[in-house]
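Field reference: sequence -> structure
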Amino acid sequence: MWRKLHVWGGVLIAIPMLIIGVSTIFIAHGDAWGAKQITFGEVKPDAELKRVLTTAQGIMLGGKQGVVLLDDAGQVKQSWLPQLDIKALRELNGQVYASGKMGLYQQQQDDWLQLYQGDVEDMTLQQGKLTLLVKHVGLVQQQGQEWQVLRADSGKEEARNLDKLMMDLHSGKAIFGKYDWIWMDVLGAYIIIFTLTGVWLWSRRSQF
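Structure field:
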């Protein structure tokens, strides 16, 4: 009885385990595979708004789905950069800039030009030069066509509390650091292989 309960319990949990294994690998490589660009259902450009900016064009809002421009009635008039999760939205020296994980963009009429590639947290003007705060890089300033690091990121992490330590252990960051995808790949692949081979062995055994 207990043996059958154990076997059938393993078979029933195979599908959830397979889902966990596959989704673990997707979580590790989702950005590289463009998972955020694969959407289900209607994508609303004004969803999860986080930034607001008043310009001569009207009110601009920045959120999870890029930048939107509102008309006088408060309705979405135009939207841009749907692939960019906006972290900062500013008007500097008459130019509108938006930044996020994919970089810094400058509005040029109905188009946006990427000026910097990287995870830009914020931007400002310092002595007329664009100055960016870039995650894992530091303070970066535009020098002509180049970008110069004014102050490098110290690379020192904040003190861990127990909750962060458990999360970093779970994700593998505490062991592999920025290569935590190795941890997730190994565990995800193990779960997938263990689940599929287990079901295969069970099916073969049940035939005899």
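Note: Residues 150 and 168 are 30 Å apart (CA to CA).
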